[in-house]
Design a protein that fits this description.
Number of helices: 4
Strand content: under 5%
Radius of gyration: 24 Å
Low-confidence stretches: 8-28
Amino acid sequence: MRFMKNRTVRNASALGALSIGLLLTGCTGGDPPSQAAACHNGIDQAYKEFSQAESEGFGGAVAMTKAGSLLAAAKIQEQFEEYTNCIEKVNHARQYIRQARSG
């Protein structure tokens, strides 16, 4: 009988610790949904600008290559839910696209 009582206390303690851990994990948050949307929308917009710049035959092959690499990296950051880094890469890519379009 004593074995069962100790086991119950141990299980209750483990359950309590697990509950507190889950609660704290939930409270840490992460990136707000607005950042996720900004990342996703930024990637979409940048890819449209990239495609348009390519179709219009703008020079700046180096800038376009950099932009393409940054957009690919931003997509990876989005998949890993690193939205702040994603947004940063999208902004840099769009700068390179503007640079390529301006000549």
